[in-house]
Amino acid sequence: MTSEFDAALLGQTDLLHLPDGRALLLPIARWSATPCPADEQLLRRCTGPVLDLGCGPGRLVTALGRRGVIALGVDSSPVAVRLTTDRGGAALCRDLFDRLPAEGRWQQILLADGNIGIGGDPVVLLRRVHRLLSPTGHALIEVEPPGTGLRRERVRLTGSDFDWAWVGADAIGLLAVVTGFRVTELLDHSGRWFAVLRKEVRDDATTATG
């Protein structure tokens, strides 16, 4: 989530407006509910420590904490952070591109609920995720169904314009390659799709000959 989503989190709107005049219905109820079976595709792969980027109202961070998994949410929305802490989760109000705790040491990073779209440039975002993860860590990313490809739009929410992106299951593989990852799992549960990305291991050692 970003600070533009404050109105949605407060129940003032649930429509994201696209440049062509269409409006997308935001799943506010799901963001604010307890984790559903599809969310378990992410949660059961988290051993911690976990960084949830764009944590929103904190359903995943809170669920992980209750399971004894170290987890921290990050969101630029003060409303989202307050909602998360009110539920008992740990969250930090900060832009995810600003300095964050334990950079390079997180074992899992979550980009759930379409948050791969934050900023409108998934390549820049995945490179940021790569720097935040430990060498053995992995990213757990919710993507769009196959056939979506990669889309970028200037969208509007309650009068604020901002850049957003959508990444389909058919596009995440190429994005992974160009950002230093490889896709190790692609999962479908009840129409929601998830990708597991691990850092690509490169052997930079040179062998002397002759």
Q: Which regions contain 5 or more consecutive residues with pLDDT less than 50?
A: 204-210
Give the beta-strand count: 11
Strand order of the largest sheet: 5-4-3-6-7-11-10
- The H/E string reads HEEHHEHEHEEHEEEHEE
Please describe the topology of this protein:
Elements: H1 6-9, E1 15-17, E2 23-25, H2 28-32, H3 40-43, E3 50-53, H4 59-66, E4 71-75, H5 78-86, E5 91-93, E6 106-111, H6 122-132, E7 133-143, E8 150-157, E9 160-167, H7 172-178, E10 181-189, E11 192-199
Parallel strand pairs: 3-4, 3-6, 4-5, 6-7
Antiparallel strand pairs: 1-2, 7-11, 8-9, 10-11
Pfam family, one: Methyltransf_25
Keywords: Methyltransferase, Transferase
Domain Methyltransferase: 50-137
Q: What does this entry look like structurally?
A:
The protein is built from 7 helices and 11 strands. The C terminus is likely disordered. It is α/β, with parallel strands linked by helices. The strands form 3 sheets. A 7-stranded mixed sheet has the order 5-4-3-6-7-11-10, sandwiched between helices. Strands 1-2 form a two-stranded antiparallel ribbon. The protein has a single domain, classed as Rossmann fold (3-Layer(aba) Sandwich). The chain is 23% helix and 32% strand. It comes from Crossiella cryophila. This is SAM-dependent methyltransferase. Keywords: Methyltransferase, Transferase. One of its GO terms (molecular function) is methyltransferase activity.
